[in-house]
Each structure stands twice: as structure tokens, then as C-alpha cells.
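TA notes. Do not distribute before section.
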Amino acid sequence: MSSDTQIKIYIFLERLWLVACALGVLLAVYFLITKDNDSALFFLGFFVLSALLYLMRKRQRVRYQTFLKQKDEPYEPGKK
């Protein structure tokens, strides 16, 4: 699999979890307004979980992009 395809997959999954975060917040607020506290608590937990997964995917993509950038640069002795 090419590196461009992998970056596109990382970006897609990152955005998918971001949409899940937004959906979790909206539904938690909706259920708080309708006084359904159990459902609001469930979607609050869903929001926290999806936010953590979003941050993990973003960190993974950034690390992969820096790895690719370092791999493409020519080696110079005495330089990190």
C-alpha cells in the first residue's frame, strides 16, 4: 500500500471519529434538555471515548507523516 493511500485512510478515520465526537455532544445535550439523564450519560461517555480515539488517530497520522518526511530527506552525518 502506498504512503499516500495510508495518509488518506488516517485522515478518513480521524474525521470519522471527529464526527462521532460532534454527534455524541449533540445527542448528550439533546437528552439533557429532554430530561433523559441516563441516555445523556451514555452519550457523554460515547463523546469521551470518541474524543480519545480521535486524538489517538491524529497523533498516529502526524507521527507517520514526520516519519515519511525524515525518510525522504538525504542523510547528512552529524545531523539528527
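Switch to the second chain here.
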Amino acid sequence: MSFRRGQKVEIFRKSEDESWADYMNEYIGLHGIITDPDTSINDPEDLVEVSLEGKGTHRLPQDCMRPLD
């Protein structure tokens, strides 16, 4: 699945990606908006930038997100 700019997402689980750090576990269950999707190649392995409610903007692996809209 490829995400698009402005799409609402939920961080619904821990990622299997090696870039996932323990502190990211606090993001599980949060909602956010995609601010910088991987639009060049739509590679599901690439990180996307998400603005999380109350937590700022972060680059996160795509396998931990699901669309809300």
C-alpha cells in the first residue's frame, strides 16, 4: 500500500522494520497525517513522514500504519 500526503493514519502495531526503536512503542494507538509520503518509488520498505497528534513529526516504517479514511 502506498500512502498519500494528507492521508489520516493510525499507528496500530509495532513495526518489524529495523528502524523501529523502543521509544516508538509509545506511538502505538496514535493518529496522524502523512506529511511526506514515499512518492518517488512507492517502496513499502521506505519510511514516511507522519505528523502525530501531540507528538510532532516523525519518519516511521509503513508496516506499522493503517489508513483511517
